[in-house]
Amino acid sequence: MKSKSSPLLKYYPEHIEIDREGARAEWEGIVVIPFMNEEELLLAYESVQKDVSVEDARHNVLGPSLWFHYDEKMTPTTLLDDMFGTLRNVLVRREVFDFPPMTTRFVP
Q1: pLDDT, tens digit, for every residue of 81-99?
Q2: Whole-number Å distance between alpha carbons of 63 and 38
Q3: Bridge partners, 51 (sequence order)
């Protein structure tokens, strides 16, 4: 949260609680934050869209859900990655994943 005048400031506590119930490692904890009012969130989102760079807007689109899984039986491949460089002997398969349709409405 960068702006002290943000309409969403009240949803960003100064101190956070981390729920570690059932966690074996510290990084498995879940940050506990208050539920946000959807209308306030959408209004705040729309109010800043004019300031979003073209590159950031390109990343902010809904794409397919992807499933990455290790497959020791596949032929190892080499991938070129902008961030990590050349990745050799990759044994990870990427597939589009379709979530099953919801039969009930989600209620937090």
Answers
A1: 888 899 999 999 999 999 8
A2: 22
A3: none
For residue 68, being part of any structural domain is answered with yes
Judge whether 108 lies within some domain.
no
Domain count, the chain: 2
**Cα dihedral angle (91, 75, 80, 97), rounded to 10 degrees?**
-60
Segments forming the whole domain that contains residue 89: 64-101
The 3-state secondary structure of 12-62 reads: CCCCCEEECCCCCCHHHCEEECCCCCHHHHHHHHHHHHHHCCHHHHHHCCC
Against a cut of 0.70, is the pTM above it?
no
The amino acid that residue 55 corresponds to is E
- Which tokens hold the place of 88? 């050799």
